[in-house]
Design goal:
By secondary structure, this protein is α/β, with parallel strands linked by helices.
Length: 398
């Protein structure tokens, strides 16, 4: 018999009733350190007082009016994002997939507006993840997400991650854009070297292509800058964001230069809930915290400490951990045992994590994490690794 909730998730047998900072408290009373952050969503932890008060105040005033009318808080949030990024304009939506759909449509519309409607194809990279809609699973190109959903949506050309020759060969007269994550999250925390991002920018400029940066998982301070591409010194033409910008409230956005957005006129795109007053209030509250003096310095300091602790942890458990990956507080370990086994052991030790491709376990704490909380997390990871090692020893003895 089918479950009341469509069984599309392999859920762990635990439920939570409240959260406090980096902690989640289960319905049974156990406390877990949340180093999954709702898959990089709860950027400021759980029940952050500024976010809670902002949402409560807004909920008492106005929830929804639709985009038929002006949205003052949305205008303010857009202006703040513009002031702190490459962008000239912002489209608000509800999720990362929707932000990427807007980016894809914008890239196609740009070339159509310039009289080249034949230029609609977008180059993406193997191992990428851009969402779960029909277009975004085609953009990601991963077989496990495409299988069973009929013909793949046309217009996307995958090339191997890091293969510069294949990338150049894929550019043709129908190519409109290149779309990339600065760090592949679902793909196993594979970072794109800064010089490669600079090379992509030059390649796009040379061929008249738009550069789309998917910063859904890497954005809003996660790597120690507001957006991860800033470390390379380049800027995209279009950028999708979500997850951390809402701090747990569902929202996304597509940011773009004026030139890239040339075709996106009234009626060309829309959303019912995107940019609603609740989301805009919370988005502004998140920026209040993330843009405050010293906040990103804190992220960089704790990220360095965490990476050093994880490197020592990997050295101490070579049968379980192969190495450390990622940047900032989007970091994790590549496992020598199935990553699901290590995740389960960590959860049993009271620490939550997120799996990824290439047998990686992501460790994505809130950006507000403290040194003391990192130390506690490492103690729980040590406990998990010891449990896995004990299982390996028992298996070898049998």
């Amino acid at each position: 018999m089918i479950t009341p909730i469509l069984p599309t998730y392999a859920r762990a047998d635990v439920a939570f009733e409240r959260g406090e900072g980096p902690w989640l408290i289960a319905t049974t009373g156990e406390r877990y350190l949340d180093f999954g952050s709702g898959i990089a969503v709860n950027s400021l932890g759980h029940s952050h007082p500024h976010l809670v008060k902002t949402l409560q105040d807004q909920a008492a005033k106005l929830w929804h009016t639709s985009n038929l009318y002006q949205m003052p808080d949305g205008k303010r949030l857009a202006e703040r994002l513009i002031a702190n990024t490459f962008a000239d304009t912002v489209f608000f939506c509800n999720s990362g997939a929707e932000a990427n759909e807007a980016a894809i449509k914008m890239a196609r519309k740009y070339h159509s507006a310039h009289g080249h409607s034949e230029r609609f194809r977008i180059i993406t990279f193997e191992g990428a993840f851009h969402g779960r809609t029909l277009a975004t699973i085609a953009a990601g190109g991963q077989k496990k997400y495409l299988e069973g959903f009929g013909p793949k949506v046309d217009g996307f050309d995958q090339v191997p991650f890091g293969d510069h020759d294949a990338l150049k060969a894929a550019i043709g007269p129908e190519t409109a854009a290149i779309m990339i994550e600065p760090i592949q999250g679902e793909g196993g925390l594979r970072s794109v070297p800064h010089q490669c991002l600079r090379g992509l920018r030059a390649l796009c400029d040379e061929h008249g292509l738009l550069l789309i940066m998917d910063e859904v998982q890497t954005g809003v301070g996660r790597t120690g800058k507001l957006f991860a591409h800033e470390w390379s010194g380049i800027a995209p033409d279009i950028m999708s964001i979500a997850k951390g910008i809402g701090g747990g409230f569902p929202m996304g956005a597509c940011l773009a230069t004026e030139a890239a957005a040339v075709g996106m006129t009234a009626g060309t795109h829309g959303t019912t809930f995107g940019g609603n007053p609740l989301a805009m209030a919370v988005g502004n509250a998140v920026l209040d915290v993330v843009l405050a003096d010293g906040f990103l310095d804190h992220v960089n300091k704790t990220a360095l400490s965490f990476k050093q602790k994880l490197a020592a942890f990997a050295d101490g458990h070579p049968k379980v951990i192969e190495g450390v990956r990622g940047e900032g507080l989007l970091i994790g370990v590549k496992c020598r045992v199935p990553n699901t086994e290590f995740q389960a052991a960590a959860r049993k030790a009271g620490l939550l994590s997120v799996g990824a491709g290439d047998n990686v376990v992501r460790l994505i704490p809130p950006l507000t994490i403290t040194e003391a909380e990192l130390t506690e997390a490492m103690a729980r990871l040590e406990q998990a690794a010891a449990a896995v090692e004990a299982d390996l020893s028992r298996a070898a003895a049998e």
